[in-house]
Design goal:
Layout (H helix, E strand, L loop, with lengths): L2 H15 L10 H7 L2 E6 L6 E6 L2 E7 L4 H18 L4 E4 L1 H5 L6 H15 L2 H8 L6 H11 L3 H10 L5 E7 L4 E6 L18 H6 L7 E5 L13 E10 L2 E7 L4 H12 L1
Helix pairs in contact: 1-5, 3-5, 7-8
Length: 267
């Protein structure tokens, strides 16, 4: 199952069947009901959601103690399992399954996450808020509010839309990298380093406790090779949780990226 196939399926469902033209019209429980999946809420231990299917009908149960954006993502995630394995699905999904799946279930959970992301923030409705935008906290907050999604899900969705050339990275308080996600075209030499790079705004924030916020930094800070020595990159760094810090890195001038890609293709 490809990302394009999921996008095409959701777009057809939303436009042809539900005539959805703005984010506020996305009712994930109504969409589930139309797909013969009833959504229930109750306290769950050890998982965020589960789905039990028999024939053409299913029951999705989500953790009643979770917040609203988490519940909506859980419903979307379980619907992903339902769309892919209709009639033969019975599944328990933990928080870690949805955030960072691993092992033999990785492919299945990643597909379900892709469905959830597309169902909650469909590509055709995301184009307008992204048009002419900067990759910064204001953009994430605006999209999060419009689509009623969690901060992290919104951030991932914006980055993987491939609209902005760049990435987001989370570093721990000790300066070690926790995770990152990126534009699919970004070459490896522009990936964030395993430890917070000196000269970056997130280094100022974590190491020097200087809240410099956003602005341009030397491109060499966020490039492992020499492709960006004479370039600048836009960075927005901020504290996410007590011991987690996020940096949004956006190559508004994409020339160093494409020079690197062209060079690698010639080898």
């Amino acid at each position: 199952m490809t990302i394009k196939a999921i996008k095409d399926f959701v777009e057809s469902l939303y436009i042809d069947e539900f005539a959805i033209s703005e984010p506020g019209e996305i009712d994930i429980e109504a969409i589930a009901f139309e797909q013969q999946a009833i959504v229930l809420e109750k306290p769950l231990n050890g998982c965020e959601a589960m789905i039990i299917g028999a024939g053409d009908k299913a029951t999705i149960t989500v953790n009643s103690t979770s917040d609203a954006p988490r519940k909506r993502f859980s419903v979307g995630h379980e619907l992903g399992h339902w769309f892919k394995d209709r009639g033969k699905v019975g599944n328990l999904c933990s928080h870690s399954d949805m955030e960072n799946p691993s092992g033999v279930s990785r492919s299945r959970e990643n597909i379900a996450n892709s469905y959830a992301s597309e169902l909650l923030i469909p590509t055709y409705l995301l184009r307008e808020p992204l048009a002419g935008s900067r990759l910064d906290l204001d953009l994430i907050s605006s999209v999060k509010s419009a689509f009623d999604t969690s901060f992290m899900m919104t951030l991932r969705r914006i980055i993987t839309s491939d609209h902005h050339m760049g990435h987001f990275v989370i570093y721990r308080k000790d300066g070690s990298r926790y995770l990152f996600d990126k534009n699919s075209n970004l070459p490896g030499c522009f990936f964030p380093t395993n430890t917070v790079p000196e000269g970056s705004k997130i280094h100022d924030l974590i190491v020097n406790n200087v809240k410099s916020g956003s602005g341009e930094v030397d491109g060499s800070v966020w490039c492992r090779e020499g492709w960006a020595d004479d370039a600048t990159v836009y960075e927005h760094a901020f504290q996410y949780h007590d011991d987690m810090f996020i940096s949004l890195v956006w190559w508004k001038n994409e020339e160093p990226i494409w020079q690197c890609i062209s060079s690698k293709e010639e080898l």
